[in-house]
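Data availability (excerpt). The following record was deposited with the supplementary files.
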Amino acid sequence: MPDTAPGLPRSTDNASLRAFLHGLPGVDEVGARARAAALATRSIKTTAKAYAIDLAIRMVDLTTLEGADTPGKVRALSAKARRPDPEDRDVPQVAAVCVYPDLVPVAVDALRGSPVAVASVATAFPAGRAPLEAKLADTRQAVADGADEIDMVIDRGAFLAGDYRKVHEEIVAVREACARPGGEPAHLKVILETGELAAYDNVRRASWLAMLAGADFIKTSTGKVNPAATLPVTLVMLEAVRDFRAVTGRQVGVKPAGGIRTTKDALRHLVLVNETTGPDWLDPSWFRLGASSLLNDLLMQRTRLATGTYPGPDHYTLD
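Predicted structure:
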């Protein structure tokens, strides 16, 4: 697959965006699957595995996005984010806690004084079917309540209909809504919902469209649609951010989310990052793992490496 893309579009009108996005190199789907499968067989030596597990823990966005979420659940999740294993102070903290906008104040209060970020889904998550003003109000409120990061969803219907300008303009508007008077804006993670994009070519196009509009991160999925994060899709997105930096000089992060449940899954993603984009992305500032059940398995495997035995199934809280 080519390492660079054609020159950037000179305009954001739909014709220019369409010409640029459809001029990107096509994705060899068979090749992408084969490459991802080959990398998934790579092993990490025992001496490096402990480091890799701790790195994966630091990359986790600990997430609760259910209709039955309560303030108590968010406080419990935040406590776990700050101290994943109450019996081991050496376990690193996770990257962020991700919640619905109305629960941002609870997470902000629970995480005050810690480096753990508060992320919030916005823009009518997960479907994105709402007027733009409602999406912007959703975003502004979450930012005003203290969210450090906003995870927005693109309008997949508009994208699949070829209305790239609408998608671009919505991302730009949400990015502007992430502004914080007198302070740094909230980081914007743009969810592509790759399980609804039908083809890897569309994943590449949506990745570039989001980056052109100013995304700080591109994210695979909401976790509400199957398939969610897959290694071949993450590979295509990693290639996109690599090529985007080569063309523009701007680095953009990647967040696979949904279906990443085991330490083996997490380590496969780290290998994929290292082999596709290189070590510049092997940092929580540039790569995240969206998960709700992954952390416990990482903690179990970490204890196994340190002690030679697995802890009991009730050793860690269920999230």
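Summary of structural features: The chain is about 45% helix and 10% strand.
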